[in-house]
Amino acid sequence: MGNPYRPYPAVIRKTIDENDAKDIRTFRFAFRDEDAKEAFSFRAGQFAELSLFGVGESPIGIASSPMDRDYVEFTVKRMGVVTTALHRLETGDSIGIRGPYGNGFPMEEMEGTNIVVVAGGFAFTTLRSLTNYILHPDNRDRFGELTVIYGAREPGELIYKYDLDRWGKRDDIQLHVTVDAGDGNWTGLVGYVPTVLGDVSPSAENAFAVVCGPPVMIRFSLPVLEKLGFPPSRILNSLEMRMKCGMGHCGRCNIGPLYVCKDGPVFTLEQLQNTTGEY
Amino acid sequence: MMDAKVISKDKIPTLLDDLIERFHVWAPMAKDDLFLFDRLVSGSEARLDVVNTKLSPKKAFFPQSEILLAFDRMRIEEPPAPEDLVLFGVRPCDAASLLVLDKVFRTSEFPNPYYSRRREATCLVGIGCNTPLQTCFCTDVGGGPFHTPGLDVLLSDLGDRYLMEFLTEKGEQLLGDTPYAENASDSDLADKERVVREAERQITPKANIEGLSERLDGLFRNPVWGFLSETCLGCGVCTYSCPTCHCFDIVDEAEGSVGKRFRIWDSCQYPLFTHHSSGHNPRPSGSARMRQRVMHKFHYLVENVGILGCVGCGRCIRNCPVSIDIRQVLNRIMDN
After folding, report:
1. Of A101, A277, B95, B330, which is most buried by a Cβ count within 10 Å?
2. Angle in degrees, CA A35, A36, A37, rounded to 5
3. How many separate domains does chain B show?
4. Residue A258, CB half-sphere, CA atoms under 13 Å: how many?
5. Do both B196 and B285 map to the same domain?
6. Which CATH number fits domain A8-101: 2.40.10.10, 1.10.10.10, 2.40.30.10, 3.40.50.720?
């Protein structure tokens, strides 16, 4: 029997400062062992425990696409003890990674449908994984239209700018990037994500909406989606919770009988409406 | 299974001394002014007369603190396999609690190897309860003072001797050929029946939980939780002394690059248990935490793995500093 608490050793290959505040950084890891690379097979929307020996562990969504087989990326905001310690590490340093955990996005159901990604701020990470997965040449034909609406407080807080630039040049993705407040150099959209969502008005027909962002963005985006005709069963959310084990054992991430770590973190709005709302 | 045996009470220390030669043996014993399960050095230390130890023997499988990994930078070592263990004098409620923990840790999508290998390395010799305590309510939650689920051998106190029944092959291998016991007679078996009847008679139903799980499903937003948590101090002793509670934290301790990763007991009754690093807390109040404890045991576990998370040992009642009685809590919920 393998030990699920034993993390796979992984080396930092690259780090990218994502925002002007420099508190959000993407870490690209390569697993040290070939076996680990094979074992760590994941789908978009799953997460892993990043393990810093002597400091602790932190559950973080996987930000790279499952199609990128040679590395795995996590975008981490400096918040607590573990993430602060992680931000001090550099290329060439090693940590442990255990997982993947959670259900991920229901790709089988999403195939053949139009996908509307609605993301705000730093919560873009697993949706970026999803977007890059869909845009991969092997997968693009299996999905319909792809619309991405992404916003941040200000231009300097937009993450994955290199991806946004790349996606903006493609004709198989409708990309709408917005900021709450522009600056002198900003020539793009200005406005809150829910407002832009209403302006873009993506069709709900044969579509899934995937929503992730700060609570206030979610609160105002859901009524817009509802008005556009998205049923709660076709609106996907990804939740965060304090968690330790990632396997449904340690007892702290449950919403009623559902465990965010193993029954989630991706839930339909319909599922969430039927829960106790304790999140 | 082989026929039952009887063993004279005065032979028990010798029997235990023999077992101690071959295994780690844990039994109830006096320790730190309490009665606790711990490792016997001598068979005479065992206190089979103690009906309910301060803590259950849960720690034999799920210790309060255990090493998950030891590390030196990126060199990781796992702890060695556990020693073979005989747990002697386990009460039926505590044995039943292991079936709850098995559902969580063993038959999970991610089996917990630390727990599972301890379970596999352990033989459980139980003892029925002739005189249940006032706080005992095993019969209300599907158990009984002589129930055997989770046990390998059951001892029944027949006055000057114990009836020894073998419930599993493991139990039979451990004690089946002990030279200190003899074959039981029909009158021994009849004596046991009498003792069981008398013990069950002493536990008068104190909590009626028929249909409780379904009822709890509709009570999440009921004001009853506020009322029930009013006197609770949030000390968490109910969860620490509960044989089925299994919530835990994982923490690292290190000096320089060398250290250990520990899994330690935690409690849903503490505010920091669910506190996000953003400051958000989905269970910010005592009533939300009281609700979580009751819901987890009597509804979520039933819903998720088909088992009740309470075995009626009564430790949460006896240890509560403000006398919260889970039986009254459940009755209050059923009245709602």
Report:
1. B95
2. 90
3. 2
4. 21
5. no
6. 2.40.30.10
The shortest C-alpha distance from A116 to chain B (Å) reads: 27
User: What percent of chain B has pLDDT above 70?
Assistant: 100
**CA distance to B12, B66, B153, B157, per residue, from B3 (Å):** 19, 39, 12, 17
B contact test, residue of A239, A242, A243, A259 with most B CBs within 10 A: A242
Crossing angle of helices A193-200 and A215-228, in 10° steps, is 20
Segments in B66-137 forming alpha helices (H): 92-105, 113-120
- Residue B100 tokens read as 């709850």
* Yes or no, beta carbons of A251 and B295 under 8 Å apart: no
User: Which of the listed CATH numbers 3.40.1830.10, 3.40.50.80, 3.40.50.2000, 3.10.690.10 matches domain A107-238?
Assistant: 3.40.50.80
State ipTM: 0.92
Is the pTM higher than 0.90? The answer reads yes
Contact (CB, 8 A) for B127 and B155: yes
Give the model confidence (pLDDT) of B80-89 as tens digits. 999 999 999 9
Residue B207, in any domain of the structure:
no
Pair (B227, B269) in one structural domain:
yes
Q: Give residue B1's pLDDT.
A: 67
A9 to chain B: nearest residue by CA? B74
Q: What are the pLDDT digits (tens) for A146-195?
A: 999 999 999 999 999 999 999 999 999 999 999 999 998 999 999 999 99
